[in-house]
Design a protein that fits this description.
This protein is mainly α. The protein has a single domain, classed as Winged helix-like DNA-binding domain superfamily/Winged helix DNA-binding domain (Arc Repressor Mutant, subunit A). It is built from six helices and two strands; from the N terminus they run H-H-H-H-E-E-H-H. The protein has a two-stranded antiparallel sheet with strand order 1-2. Helix 1 packs across helix 5 and helix 3 packs across helix 4. The chain starts with a helix and ends in a 21-residue tail after the last helix. One of its GO terms (biological process) is response to stress. It comes from Sphaerimonospora thailandensis. One of its GO terms (molecular function) is DNA binding. Keywords: DNA-binding, Transcription, Transcription regulation. Pfam families: MarR_2.
Amino acid sequence: MPEPADLAAAEEYAAFCEVEHELGVLFRRAHALSAQMGRNVHPELEPGAYGLLVRIDRVAPVRPSDLAAYVGVGKATISRQVKVLEELGLVGREPDPLDRRAHLLVLTEEGGQRLGRARAARQQQLYALLAAWPEEDVRLLARMLRRFNALTETTPPAPPQPGSARDPSQEPTSP
């Protein structure tokens, strides 16, 4: 008969596996949704660019280097993506008052309007999707997502410690 500590470790490991699986499903669906949202903003918008527009809207004016750091890409990648957003008329540049050599990114009026319409449509879809949930569950989901997002923004994921329930080498084996 397994020891209680072994059972607790196996249950904890199973819970983490379930979270990992559900996050994978969520991320795949979120990627597809982001691509659709981008097309709603502008038919020529690249799939990853919607997230850039949302971030620029939230923190503008923003330096391209800060935007690159936030989304985890290099300066060359962000430069290419921002150029496309500028060519589509969704993002503009303004001088950085603290550094004459630098510039800051802002949404254009057109970019703000298009993003606003796409967000309104997304919010309606989300409302319809969660309409059957009790309000308490919706608030709980929001709190848990906020907590998870805050954790991942401030702490890089730590590798599992050998021998811990999170250590893949300690995974329970199937018969």
